[in-house]
Amino acid sequence: MTTVRRRLMGNSLALMANQITQNATSLLLSMAIARTLGPYTLGQYTLAFTFYFIFMTISSQGLKSLLTRELARHPEKAETCLVSGSLLQFGFSLLAYAILVVLVLPYRGATRIICWIVGAALIPYGISNITEAIFQSREKIQIIAISTVPIYILRLVVMYLLLRNGESINLVGITLVLSEVVILLIEWGFAIRLLKRVPLRVDWPFMRELATNARTFLAIESVSVVKSRMQVLLLSLIAGETIVGLYGAATQLIQPFYLITQSLIVSSMPTMVRSASDDDPRLKRLVEKMIALLFSVAVPMLVVFWFVGGGLLVFLYRNARFNDAGLALGIAGLSMLPIAFVRVLGYLLMSRGMERVNLRVLIVNTVGGFFLTIVLVSQFGIVGAAVAAVCIELSGAVQFGLVVRQRFFSPDLWKIVQAPLLAGLAMSVVFVALTALALPMLPLLAIAGVAYGVIVVAAAVRLLEMNLPLDRLKALRRR
Asked: Would you say 42 and 319 are in contact if contact means Cβ atoms under 8 Å apart?
């Protein structure tokens, strides 16, 4: 295995560990809220976290994407970026929080307060994205995992104890904010040690240039997060907090796929940026293998959702009402397939400086998806939201596919789907056998979980053992 490939896999695993821990603790927290306070309070927290996530993404993720790309090209700017970039991010975050405070005013008093509390976390989280951009650009992603994973686990323990002792959801929100402050301080400590020299002055021209260049990335991230979260917002306005809680509980189970996708794509972005030429066949094979790997994660997961989706939700949340979200979970899970194309091809275009194409696709999807979601949610409720999510992602996959085919290459779909189809078939055989045994839910899920892990790892090994398109990249790094 080459050094570049080892670094790519190591960074992917480190970021994946961070993301999976974050997702796992979020799922466990949702389970604790649902079991102790019920679907309505879970809906309140889900709505609050949705507002937080939207404004956190709008205020910081665009800047982070830009800095990751630019610092990979110009690592000498990292020292200036830590101070001046953090100050710029602080200003963006304050503005975003002020807008959030105003937008949640129409909600009920208790819902409004939890939204304000949880939303405050976007300030420390946003600033920590600057340090994480530095770590990612230098392929030191393991530092992110070291800084965050222990805090996520400790945060969950504190939140669980608060809920168990009958404390309000507001204290859970305050714990979230404090934990993000701790993570920020830890990452700053690592960043200072990594850079060794940090200029204690503000570079105003650097900040102006950064703000100007981040406009397109900011627009992309803004439209993207609104597109991904508008189902929850529209459900809250049309159907209320309880339905939001049910839908949030269902889509929570899809989050591991999103996080795996993000960790793989972000880890590979510096490699894409440094790749040779746009028409290099090695780049094409890299993109195909990344999509195939994501498909291999998604297809067996879909099998699980369709076999035991409703029962799984009831088992996790200990409330029979969550069975109503089983069909929505199975339908929404289908969106993982087009998302694999959207994420990989979107980052490919971004690495080539074509982020305006991403913005155009996102605007089309968001505007069309907004009206589609209103119609479907009004008619079919939670199931309509799930159908709308699939249609939106499918539209994006088609648009990105056409652009990549015109500008770069046409992905070989048969090569992409071979391993995922085998993984899905193997998972289906496992569930047919388990159904015949009529096992209780706990042993069924335990066996299915082990089988899923084995199947996905086998598919990943098969894909990664093939020669990745990194030979020329290695030669370029030697130069």
From this structure: no
* Whole-number CA gyration radius for the chain: 22
Strands, DSSP E only, in 154-199? Answer: none
Enter the pTM of the model. Answer: 0.72
Residues 340 and 338: their CA atoms lie apart, in Å, by: 5
Cα–Cα distances in Å, from 99 out to 102, 186, 218, 275? 5, 28, 16, 40
Contacts of 311 (CB under 8 A, 6+ apart): 323, 326, 441
pLDDT digits (tens, 9 = 90+) for 205-258: 777 777 777 776 677 777 777 777 888 888 888 888 888 888 888 888 887 787
Burial class (CB in 10 A: 0-12, 13-18, 19+), 447: middle
**Unique residue bearing structure tokens 């088992």:** 315
CA 13/CA 457 separation, integer angstroms: 13
For the stretch 419-475, pLDDT in tens is: 888 888 988 998 888 888 877 888 888 888 888 888 888 887 777 665 444 444 344
Euclidean distance between CA atoms 141 and 127, whole angstroms: 17
Per-state percent for the chain, helix, strand, coil, to nearest 5: 90, 0, 10
405-410-413-419 Cα dihedral, nearest 10 degrees: -120
DSSP string, 291-317: HHHHHHHHHHHHHHHHHHHHHHHHHHH
- Phi/psi for 166 (5° steps) reads 80, 20
Query: What span, in angstroms and rounded, lies between the C-alpha atoms of 75 and 305?
Result: 44
Residue 415, classified by CB atoms within 10 Å of its CB into exposed (0-12), middle (13-18) or buried (19+), is middle
As a whole number of angstroms, the distance between CA 155 and CA 124 comes to 15
Task: Give, in order, the Cα–Cα distances in Å from 313 to each of 132, 253, 261, 300.
Answer: 34, 9, 23, 18
